[in-house]
Amino acid sequence: MSAGVAGNRFVSVGYSLLFFGFLFAPLVIMTVTAFNSSSFPRILPWECFTTDWFGVLVRDRRLMEGLMTSAIIGVCVVAISVPVGLAGAIALSEVGPRVRAVLYTVLLVPILIPGVVLGISTIVFWGNLGRSAGAGYDTFFFNGKFLTIAGHVTFIAAYAMLIFSARLQRFDPTLTEAALDLGATPGQAFRKVMLPFLRPAIASAGFLTLLASFENYNTTVFTILAGSTFTTALASKVRYGIDPSLSALAVIIIALTLIGAITSEAFTRRREAVLNGRARSGLYANPLVRSAVHPATVGVLLIAVASSAVWQGSQHDSGTCRETMLQEKRANQERFLQEQQRRLREAAPSRAPTPSTAPPAVGTNPSPFGGAFSSGSLAPSPAAPPRPGNPSP
Which of 81, 237, 256, 375 matches a 20 to 30 Å C-alpha distance to 41? Predict the structure, then answer.
């Protein structure tokens, strides 16, 4: 039994290591390659520690313009998708079972449609609508940002609806009825009873819709037309060749994700402590500890650490190391060329033509074409002397 337990434990540990290695090894590799001075993302051979690739990323004009475009589109998609999803979730909770099934199917169909189809159908629909209205190509009917927002909302609003529907299943409708019985208007009952209950779902839906819009590619590549978002610009950059600036982008995304995750965990633990009555007891009784674990303090500390790391990295100069590596590469290349020349000189006598391998003389070419392709075959022949009795003109 002990051998079996040990074997199972070994298999579990091995599987866990493989699983987490599969998940995090690419992140570790990209993080390391972001600080290697090699022009191609690689870990080995290591050249110089540098932070120049972050500057290359920031100076990439197309990526920065695409980032700004994606931010504008994402904010607009959130502003439209969250209310639409909330309205759909409330409608699902208020109608009967048969109508609910039909409405639920209609609202979820856009999620099941491929993004390519959504993108093409969006530009075809709005293009035909604009031409029917006599609008020019400078109107919003043919604007890439507007078309991208419209295409994203068609399916991202369904994500928000699912989040609100899951939250509304825990809502007690008698609370709204009680507010109405006490003289509140439907609007007041919604704002003062239902909306506070839906506040966590609103935050989750907003964050999810922003990410879904920001990272979408299949629909955006058609609807953005001649413009570009951050995702499409990044895809074009990868298509034409990659450099460690993409690894620098991955490092920035990882850092922002860690800051957000740690701050969110601190907020969750503080809320649990408040709900359980432990906010001022035990370890939290110490004011310093209570202030140190506050989500705002944790977030500020993490941002300060990240800002310090950015400043320290901007002060690092890898020019001397790069120059040394360049000189070493030139020396290695020179030695390689000299070695090749030496080998060629040594092999030259053995490749000299022998009498048996000398090229045949003109006129003795054994070719079946009679030497038509031999050298000098196209040279003009000397003029023949005139024959007697046939004077030349």
Answer: 256
